[in-house]
Design brief:
11-stranded antiparallel beta sheet, disordered N terminus, outer membrane lipoprotein receptor (LolB), chain A
Length: 220
């Protein structure tokens, strides 16, 4: 009797594996398809400038839906391969973030303060911005990636989980159009607070050079 039960369970397990393998392959193919599509669209254009809006919402605020607005900001993001990034926040007050893969500077003119961090301590999530457009295949080296919704008229929803885990980031979700344009990026921390970036316009910026990403001590 026990042997018969074992054979039945083993048969069910094998059947489950056979049925799930095509779905797993489809998921992996979907990730590669999306990453390759983004790379083909943006990988060869050189520099990029992105108009963004950013909203920070706690888990409680998210549960209340659109009735509560989070911490809002807007400005421009400048990218230059392979890992140069400049974030120019315009509202609610001017701030600048510079990152070159080694160090990160946060400049707050209103307070006449500059903070410097090692890129691997503060700025891992910013690296996602550079890799997403310029070298999306690099994301597979640092994240477990899956497509969590099938293609629709709105495009794709992709989830990235840091591997190995990050202390400050639980997962990242990216909404991507059918034409492989990233539109919304959510950075979700372990307690459920979400930092959401809306990418309103993405344009080539051929005039960018390394000088645009060098830290210069502000006047005053």
């Amino acid at each position: 009797m026990e042997e018969k039960r074992y054979k039945i369970l083993a048969g069910c397990a094998i059947l489950a594996i056979i049925l799930l393998l095509p779905l797993w392959g489809e998921c992996q193919e979907g990730v590669d398809h999306i990453l390759n599509g983004i790379h083909n669209r943006y990988g060869g254009v050189g520099g990029l400038v992105i108009n963004y809006r950013r909203e920070v919402k706690t888990k409680t605020m998210s549960m209340l839906g659109g009735r509560v607005k989070g911490d809002l900001a807007s400005g421009k993001i400048y990218l230059l391969p392979p890992n140069l990034l400049r974030v120019e926040q315009e509202k609610p007050r001017p701030e600048t973030v510079l990152a070159d893969g080694q160090a990160l500077w946060w400049i707050i003119p209103e307070e006449k303060k500059v903070y410097q961090y090692a890129a691997d301590q503060f700025g891992q999530e910013l690296r996602v911005l550079t890799d997403l457009w310029q070298a999306p295949s690099q994301l597979k080296k640092r994240f477990d990636i899956k497509v969590i919704s099938r293609p629709s008229h709105n495009g794709f929803l992709m989830e990235l989980i840091p591997n190995p885990p990050w202390e400050q980031v639980d997962r990242i979700r990216i909404q991507i159009t059918k034409k492989f344009t990233p539109q919304v990026l959510d950075i979700i921390n372990p307690i459920g607070t979400t930092t959401r970036f809306y990418f309103d316009a993405i344009k080539p910026a051929h005039c960018l050079s390394e000088k645009n990403f060098q830290f210069v001590v502000p006047e005053g």
